[in-house]
Amino acid sequence: MKLRPVDIDQFRVIIQSCSGQVCLTTAEGDRLVANSDLCRKVGLDLFFTVAQKLDIFIDCENQQDQRRVESFLVQFSC
Fold first, then answer.
1. Phi-psi region of 51 (alpha: psi -120 to 50; beta: other; left: phi over 0)
2. Euclidean distance between CA atoms 19 and 3, whole angstroms
């Protein structure tokens, strides 16, 4: 699912509740594990600022997590 602008605080809560890795992937193949400790410390705010210029996709390790994240993102679709 392609990432759209979202409420970052709500998104952070959703991805931190996921049981597996949640990766944000660019069309070029760059990957960021969104629910990692490093990402939590650096912050998603900066990432979302940069991501507005890129095609970013959500890839969850766990199918149940994928459905939950997609359900959340649906409310922000155009």
1. alpha
2. 20
8 Ramachandran zone, left/alpha/beta (phi>0; psi -120 to 50):
alpha
Amino acid type, 41: K
pTM of the model: 0.80
Distance, in Å, from the CA atom of 15 to the CA atom of 21, rounded to the nearest integer, reads 9
In the block, tokens 């660019």 appear at: 26
Question: pLDDT tens across 14-31, in order?
Answer: 999 999 999 988 888 989
Question: Half-sphere exposure of 75 toward its Cβ, with a 13 Å CA cutoff?
Answer: 8
C-alpha to C-alpha distance for 26 and 55, rounded to whole angstroms:
6
DSSP state letter for 21: -
How far apart are alpha carbons 60 and 50 in whole angstroms? 21
